[in-house]
Here is the input.
Amino acid sequence: MTPAHLYDLIYELLKKELKVRYKRLVLGYLWSIASPLMYAGLYYLVFYKILKVSTENYPLFLVSSLFPWQWMTNTIMIAPSTYIGNASLIKKTLFPRYLIPVVVAIQDALHYLVSIPVIILFVYIFHGTFSWHWIFGIPALVVVQFTIASSLNLLFATLTVFFRDLERFLQIGIMFLFYMTPVLYSETKIPDNYQWLIIYHPIAPLIINWRTLFMNGTIRGDYLISSLAWGVLLLSLAQFAYRKLSWRFAEVL
Amino acid sequence: MEIIRFEHVTKTYPLYHHFFSGLKNFIFNIPSAMKQLRSSGFTALKDLSFTIQEGESVAFIGRNGAGKSTLLGLIAGVLKPTSGTIRVSKRVSPLLELGGGFHPELSGLENIQLNGVLMGLSRKQVAAKIDEIVAFSELGEFIHEPIRSYSSGMNARLGFSVIAHLEPELLLIDEVLAVGDASFQKKCFAKIKEFKARGVSVVLVSHNSSDIEMVCNRVIWIENHKILMDGPTAEVLPHYIKAMT
Here is the structure.
């Protein structure tokens, strides 16, 4: 496989994924911005207006952590259908199968990238801090999150081919992880004797970094290293599972 | 020069319903479940050996479930043998199923672009050939419609049109020519003849003896997951037809 053909394959597969996902939707690409915004509106209503969370600048707080979280969940939640939904492609044509998860992950990353201006708009409206650190921080966090998200997609996509029950576990697992990650609440609310756990959390350091980057223009180095370590770990795990199992895809699907 | 060599190839499928009966059984009985998985299996092909030379055109015949499609999957490289070795020295253009690899939500045109690249062409090459492919398919305005609205015959037209404009060295066809109408079938066979004249080898799975006579000079008869007969079409085909009636 030449690099030129690899590029062509990714290009065509990405085009297909984008077209298929929005084929019958009137709002089309607008959904990549509309759906996290709607979630943000819902959580604002429930947690700020009804439960009276006392976090400062809550709208900006919500948007800057919920948007990257949505990106992460979208890539994980679509994993069970990544291979199963492309069964005919896998049974009938020959191409590197890892490309499908990669393409799915690229697609979700693109949707996040186009929603960054909306976050920046919130920074402007709610008096966040515009910072030069964004120039280095945003690409760094995008790369780290892409690694984690695409690895999780590859891992779960591969395993679900053999254990379809995993899809149900995943739905509950994501819910669990959502409330166990400081997305809706600040990490300072976590009791002191559990604070040391944050750095070992697979997603929390990443989300906290996104939020502090947009709200205060800062990034915590130890959290970035933690996310990077998770990325490397998950990538090797996903590759291991893929190498062991991918040759059976055409039999099982 | 030989282009395909099978040496003592066996293909067994684990019976996956043990898996799919759920995680619950599997987790709670791991040792016995693993044992069951190893011991139970379905043998699709047993100890198969044969070679196919360059320029030969071969048909595989046999009852449903004899293992013919598994054989094509193995040649195409989509499946891996359980034991034995397989060598295929040419670039394969598998036509395992017309419309395989097509996406129902994409239009005919979009599917041609995707399929062409999946079959090994570059985007440039596809772009250069796309008008020709569309013309060959005779689908007219339907080429812009999503293919979920296509009939099976139209699907077959699109699938064959893509294949016809690749540059295959080895063509695998799995009983797919039966669905098109008579005039399109004629066009397909003309194209296959053109390929053969250029030295492309054709491997065909079919139940239609006139198709086989038209395309293939050699027939391999698979029965009970093994080769029962292997020889020139004129020799093997009459035996097969007799056995089937």
